[in-house]
Amino acid sequence: MPDSSKSSSDPRPPSSKASSSRTPTDLELEQLLSREASAFQREVEVERILKAFKLNPYDILDLDLTAKLEDIKRKYRQLSLVIHPDKTPHPRAPDAFDILKKAEAELSDTNKRTELDAAIASARSTLLRALSLPSNLTDDDSRLRNLADDPKMMAQGLTTPWKIMLKEKVKEVLIEEEVRRRKAIKMNLANEGLEARKKEEEVATRKRKAEEDKAWEESRESRVGSWRSFNNSKKKKKATLKFLDEACSAT
């Protein structure tokens, strides 16, 4: 008779084969989900860059307006790996990659970044004045961090967080500057066109005058020749008349 107590007190361990067959399946599922999440994030990042405000490189790189150069370089390397056309099937990944490269180049250019930071500082100062706040406040000041909850601001209908307000103001200032820049270029081109037309008119005037002078000179020689021919014919006529008179007198 089999020993039932032994079989109940000494249960057999679960099969290692069954355990090993479950574990890879779980890992494969996790890897699949990870790949799908990664692919989704790449697509999302490409779309974000394509929709970012193109006049603000900080916005394209998704950086704070006070980011340092090392932050810019680090974020660029990170994003360039995420949206690289070789790593995502998004049809506009090359466009997003070019936009990202241009943004990093502008922020790495000292002169361009200085101009951009000056425009941001101007927008910040203008916004603080409009809110009747000191111009020397830093972004971590409680009056700015809690701006959307300030009863005075809420009474004026201002319930937008400070960073969003600043971002919108910077956008407004940069658009105004871009409009002025384009108008200046257009005016310069117009002035250059006007100057070019003036030069063309001057050249045409000089050419016309030269042609008129040449025509006058040619006609003058013709007139002189005609006058000489006329004088010669008069002299011949007088000589003929004189000869006839003398001939008549002789007879």
Automatic annotation (TrEMBL):
Highest taxon in the source lineage = Eukaryota
Per UniProt, residues of the J domain are: 56-120
The family database entries (Pfam families) matched by this protein are listed as: DnaJ
Q: Where is the composition biased (Low complexity)?
A: 1-24
Positions of the UniProt region annotated as Disordered: 1-26, 196-222
Question: What PANTHER family has UniProt attached to this entry?
Answer: J DOMAIN-CONTAINING PROTEIN SPF31
- Protein's UniProt name: J domain-containing protein
Which species is listed as the source? Boletus reticuloceps
Per the UniProt record, the lineage of the source organism begins with: Eukaryota, Fungi, Dikarya, Basidiomycota, Agaricomycotina
